[in-house]
């Protein structure tokens, strides 16, 4: 279906009028179309039908995740009703649309202690709802044992970039992830955003976090990953400098979830390490396109930083001050 015909069909179904030319952006799996209408700016996602999921994303699960969170009062894009469903289906495509949310994506240069606190508090609200997801996962979308899956996609990228096998730090990353493959077995599961990254988080003029976008990687799995991804992306500033004051603020704000679910520092730290490997696999091809050597990938660099005993101890001190100490205090008071 040509995009012009697709947009016309969507607008006819929704009863809106086009007021500008559309813009097309090709993402990893979907074609994204932005279209100004008389009722607001509309975002259209066009997914090819696939026999299996791509990365962790799945069109139908993305739609279901957005519906689940929006119905629970979390400000996420709301899929528009297109006839009888929240999507249109052609022989080769699945299409859905929503209007843009109010708010501005956070820029890296805006990251601060106060903003990290708000990001962590907002995430706690999401996680509290995420664990309530109980509907059967649709379209045979499997539960993802995240560590095992990360190793699988690392093996996959090695076929495209064989030199990775000769990179010592890469092999260390893979081996450590394999060793800890079952470390999250007793931790809570739910809908995982899987990219709790500042540019996907919306704020208002006062710096309040007001919404979350881009559920293209959402899957059903261990939701601690959203905490570790959020912590890392909130506190690593320009020039890959880790700001521990910001990390401190994020952990303090996220501590109710960590305490309630008895998340140990080892679980948190090893998940953080595994997510460095996850995002290294997603970005290593772009690293090469920039004519840089493999080791210059920022997530490999972050992993090497985490290998420092001194740095790990600093993270532990922060984690301990808000999570472990408070947990023992609550036990004492109960």
Largest sheet: 5 strands, antiparallel
Terminal Cα span? 62 Å
Average pLDDT figure: 90
Low-confidence stretches: 328-334
Oligomer: single chain
Task: Count every helix, treating DSSP H or I runs of 4 or more residues as helices.
Answer: 10
The number of E-state strands comes to: 12
Rg computed from alpha carbons, rounded to a whole number of angstroms: 21 Å
Spatial order of strands in the largest sheet: 1-2-3-5-4
The global form is globular
Pfam families: APH
InterPro entries: Aminoglycoside_PTrfase, Kinase-like_dom_sf, Pseudomonas-type_ThrB
Protein name: APH domain-containing protein
Organism: Trichonephila clavata (Joro spider)
Summarize the structure.
This is APH domain-containing protein. The protein has 334 residues and is of the alpha+beta class. The protein contains ten helices and twelve strands.
General description of the model:
This is APH domain-containing protein. It comes from Trichonephila clavata. One of its GO terms (molecular function) is amino acid kinase activity. Belongs to the pseudomonas-type ThrB family. With 334 residues, the chain is an alpha+beta fold. The chain is built from ten helices and twelve strands. The strands form four sheets. Strands 1-2-3-5-4 form a five-stranded antiparallel sheet, with helices on one face. It has a three-stranded antiparallel sheet with strand order 6-8-9, with helices on one face. A two-stranded antiparallel sheet has the order 7-10. Helix 3 runs parallel beside helix 7, helix 5 packs antiparallel against helix 8 and helix 8 runs antiparallel to helix 9. The longest helix has 25 residues. It is globular. It starts with a helix and ends with a helix.
